[in-house]
Write a structure and sequence with these properties.
The complex is a heterodimer. By secondary structure, chain A is an alpha/beta fold. Chain A is built from 7 helices and 19 strands. The radius of gyration of chain A is 22 Å and the shape is flat. Chain A starts with a strand and ends with a helix. By secondary structure, chain B is an alpha/beta fold. Chain B folds into 2 domains: about 100 residues, Urease, subunit C, domain 1 (Roll), CATH 2.30.40; about 375 residues, TIM Barrel, CATH 3.20.20. In chain B, the strands form 5 sheets. In chain B, strands 1, 2, 3, 4, 5, 19, 20, 21 and 22 form a 9-stranded mixed beta sheet that branches. In chain B, strands 6-7-8-23-24 form a 5-stranded parallel beta sheet. A 5-stranded parallel beta sheet of chain B has the order 9-10-11-14-18, sandwiched between helices. The chains are: A alpha/beta, B alpha/beta. The site of zinc ion has 9 residues of chain B, from loops. Zinc ion binds next to loops of chain B. Chain B: InterPro entries: Amidohydro_3 (IPR013108), Formylmethanofuran_DH_asu (IPR012027), Metal-dep_hydrolase_composite (IPR011059), Metal_Hydrolase (IPR032466), Metallo-dep_Hydrolases_sf (IPR050378). Chain B: It holds the Pfam family Amidohydro_3. Chain B: This is Formylmethanofuran dehydrogenase, subunit A.
Chain lengths: ~325, ~575
Amino acid sequence: MDIVKLTLTKVPELYLEAENITPDHFAGKTAQQIGELHVHLGNTTAKISDYFTVEGKGGATAADTKIIISGPTDKVKYIGMKMTAGEIEVQGNTDMYTAAWMAGGKIHVKGNVDSFCAIGMTGGEFIVDGNAKNYLAASYRGDWRGMQGGKVIVKGNAGSDTATFMNGGTIDIGGNVDVHLGTHAEGGKIIVRGNAKGRVGGQMVKGDIFVLGQVERMMPTYILKGEEEVELDGKKQMFHVWIGDMGERHGKRKGEIIYGKIYVPSGKAEAAAPAARAERKKKLTDKQLEQVKEAFKGQEPTVQQVRTYIYDTFDIDMKPMQVSRLIDGLKR
Amino acid sequence: MSEYIIKNGKVYDPKTGLKGDVADVCIKDGKIADKVSNKAKVIDAKGKTVMAGAVEVHAHVAGPKVNEGRNYRPEDKLFTYKPTGKNTRMSGGFSIPTTFKTGYEYARMGYTTVMEAAMPPLYARHVHEEIKDTPIIDEGAFPVFGNNWFVFEYLKNNEMDNVCAYISWLLKTTKGYAIKIVNPGGSEAWGWGENCTTVNDPVPYFDITPAEIVKGLLTANEKMGLPHSIHIHSNNLGNPGNYTTTLDTLKIAEGVKPNNKFGREQVLHHTHVQFHSYKGDSWANFESGAKEIADYFNKNKNMTMDLGCVTLDETTTMTADGPFEHHLTSLNHLKWANVDVELETSSGIVPYVYDPNIKVCAIQWAIGLELGLLAKDPMRTFITTDHPNAGPFTRYPRIMKWLMSDKSRQAMLKGFKNSDKVIAATNLASIDRELTLYEIAQMTRAGPAKSLGLYDTFGGLAPGMDADVVVYDLNEDKIKDAEEIEKAFSAADYVFKSGTLVVENGEVINNGNKRTLWVDAKVPMNEQVERDVQMKFLKFYSMNLNNYEVSNHYVPNPYVIEVDSN
Ligand SMILES: [Zn+2]
């Protein structure tokens, strides 16, 4: 396997759209030729070599090509878009649409990724050591074809709207996920090893969601079907199984109606809702209040800005009304 | 104004009877001329095809449902955008392109006149705003009449003068071109949770049948002598076994003679006939009824049709047939938009993937082409896709290829996953007719222009006609591979619109001088209709009458066809 090393030499002023960074485009090319491929910045077009140093060369085919990317790549979008084979390894963070419509091969991001990563993915493996933002493995805006195959592993947390319109493949999240998990899903398997914030499986037609921590609040359109022994991670475990979404259409197989299923480990399900509610009531400490004050000093932040800041910084989900009062309090 | 002479091309023009004869075409002052001075710019068309600009008889290219399609299908735009060019604005979209792309793509294919097929009167302003923003091509729009409360009530009371006065008023108020009928009565019945699937199903409350609506509007159309005939999408679209409903609808026109001063010979145009030519009684035994429809059509010369060919693409269905779109979303489970247009019509939108591996889709594909090949008179048979319902209009060159090449059709038939079943359910495998370029010119130029009552101006190359002229890089005597046909028709070498060179080597070089066609049918003043309009606006419409009219500034460059309908 031939290796191409890309090193970002400067932080781009605008976001860099780099859909050409894939083994498919690099295969059969020299470092010089790779450097000539285009990238977009706003309404301008530049070359890969304007921003990256390129070492090595592409392999004979995409499958024989590995790309190692280093440098401050936080503002680089579309890495690995539509790739079909080969490997990409990113040392740092990447921006939106990493691994979008990926069909094969492997992408490993050692830092965090932004939103819309692995959307419409049909095959291959996408591994993130850090966190992923919203719409991970979902469908493109308006589309009904979310993740359809392959595997996504995020070791940290994932944001909201993960796996919207998923209909195949596997997603494994090491940490927590925000609201709207597996909305409209029609297949596939999702494992969340931490907590899910709620609105899990809304309008889900088919598919399996495992939440090994707690589901903050189960949708009212899900019914607790009972306990079931299911194999996960190679061992058999007892789960409470919820079926739904009862407000959605469902197909039949051998006379039996197929539902979407949410699995929560036995013993945790009962505790789930009250625990989460207790967390919601949490107030900020005086020290935290000071910190909020400092963060928005001299600004007029919106409720949503402050609420997001509190959630991201202290992991406390305050109601908008609470935040609004808090802002009033800080002004006085 | 500049003069041009297009020299030595193989000219296909039903108007002058040229069937590929080598001839020169002269352009002077925006019109076709007998001769030009020696200052005329010379275009060498040796070994190339020369035709008049094509005329689109039925497409959904402007207005609220098209735009709602754009709004709710961002995925249709994905990876399709072209940045601003030297003469073009940014444009994109596939099945529901932006207005700019609509103009550019029609022009690149050599289409110079286009009819928007369904204008809801209440949103006519929106339709005209989009028409105004669609460059190059001349356009008109057909307001829908088939589910209109005024029409129902006047027809029910046998008040033909009032029907005519109302039609005249609405054409003028909406700057409309012709009488469009969509699922007569059925879209109104949908407001009551019902539908009309035969011509005899009464509309709830109004107690009028589709047959009465069609007959009434047809009579009014001929009484008024409008340039186009009634333009109908009949009941029961898209359902297995619906060909009998289609025949029942066509029979309403039997024996009626056209009355107009525009050279139009038909009294009824049936649109997207492919969707109306289905046999069988379920999707399991679904099969082609193209032969039955074509046989009837061949015998009855007072009607025209367009095909509505399925192109096997992912597209967006949109129609004023509200109940049909609801039916469709329950079949494919994709997103659905729906609206009730007050006293006038309804509308729905659902994305659709015509997958060649699905038997029904492949049969639909075959039916569209069968109709084109079994119909004996190309002057009465027009190529459409009911854009974007059966596929985008940008696929016309591909349909021309299929109609012209038996080999390309057979290759498609053999390639289907359910090849044997598709062949068994259709007649296409046994039809070896290959259309000629002359017949294509009839189906896309002369025929549609004549049916619209515009054959003195558009669709031909006789001196005095508008200089809409196209040169394609195609030589009928030397076609080796059918792909050449699709390639040539996709991007013309030269396109002139009203004497202005707008496309050169497949690229848009000029945005032309776009006009909006509408019909001003003059009838005697009718106080009852005036009073009824005011009353309906007071009592029922959510809009004030003053905000309803498409005032002149919406139509900055009008092309008005005046009719004395007294
Ligand atoms: Zn239509």
